[in-house]
Design a protein that fits this description.
The protein is of the alpha/beta class and 148 residues long. 39% of the residues lie in helices and 20% in strands.
């Protein structure tokens, strides 16, 4: 499921603070929810979420991932009131193009990205880091389920 730019969304962008968040969001957990709520907390925030494709997650995280398909992840993310738009990307180049075309005021990243290269950062006016909730990660959630 992809949502494209339309005349309406282009008009909305002019009057709102454009926030961008990207990640796998394979199993959405409390850490993801809090990060998205933080993104939406900026005045007049329009939150655009970019999520990795199934192929990309498999390549980055291993053959047994993703747990949830990109359709499921996009549908779930789009249902959150803190998210205004969701798209899927398959490559670093596609991610950079989506970020560049959106022209975000702020990119939100988890605090684990501090002092690391961030794809597309050069097209963002500002990068803000959200402190990770250490107990919450997709890997921890998968291990927790497996150990039950």
């Amino acid at each position: 499921m992809r949502t494209g730019s339309t005349p309406v969304t282009r008009t909305i962008y002019r009057y709102m603070m454009k926030i961008i968040v990207n990640g796998s969001f394979d199993i959405v957990h409390l850490g993801h929810i809090r990060l998205l709520q933080y993104a939406k907390s900026f005045p007049s925030a329009y939150v655009y979420v970019l999520t990795d494709s199934d192929r990309r997650i498999k390549e980055l995280k291993g053959a047994d991932r993703p747990i949830n398909t990109e359709y499921e992840r996009v549908s779930l993310l789009a249902a959150f009131k803190s998210v205004d738009r969701v798209d899927v990307f398959d490559t670093d180049e596609e991610l950079v193009k989506l970020i560049r075309d959106y022209g975000p005021d702020i990119m939100i990243k988890g605090s684990d990205y501090r002092n690391k290269p961030i794809i597309g950062a050069e097209f963002c006016k500002e990068i803000k880091f959200y402190d990770r909730l250490e107990r919450y990660s997709t890997t921890n959630k998968i291990q927790d389920i497996a150990n039950r």
